[in-house]
Amino acid sequence: MEIPPKSPDGSEKSPQSKELITSDTGSTLCMSSRSESVWTSASRSKWDIYHKPLIVVSVGAAIFLFGVVITSLSCFLTKNKKVYKMSGPAFLSLGLMLLVCGLVWIPIIRKKQKQRQKSQFLQSLKSFFFNR
């Protein structure tokens, strides 16, 4: 491994790293934004917007149905009855939890989409009135 040279003032950082840290080349809007920029108005499809909650809902429903099947097996089968009685409710609760989380996530995304549309509208109004 190569050891970076020490700077003249004795600190561990090299002169190149200090220059990069103090440089003001980055845009603060891009650095502070966690999601897509307000300035890009590319429309996204419904699948792009809702695919994560739909996947969570479908996985939750599948696990819930699997839990129903395992729980019902504990009623009909006498062999390994304790295993079915223990694992069935666990799958039921896990599936129900994922199902509810996905179903709650969808209205949250809808609300955020409405807020984003309002924000883009207000940004366009601001730029119209202040750029005259």
Automatic annotation (TrEMBL):
It is found in: Membrane. Residues 1-29 are annotated as: Disordered. Its main location: membrane. Keywords: Membrane, Transmembrane, Transmembrane helix. Residues 17-29 have a biased composition (Polar residues). One of its GO terms (molecular function) is phosphatidylinositol bisphosphate binding. The chain crosses the membrane at residues 54-78, 90-109. Pfam families: PIRT. It is a multi-pass membrane protein. GO terms for cellular component: plasma membrane. The keyword Transmembrane helix applies. This is PIRT protein. It comes from Peucedramus taeniatus (Olive warbler). The gene is Pirt.
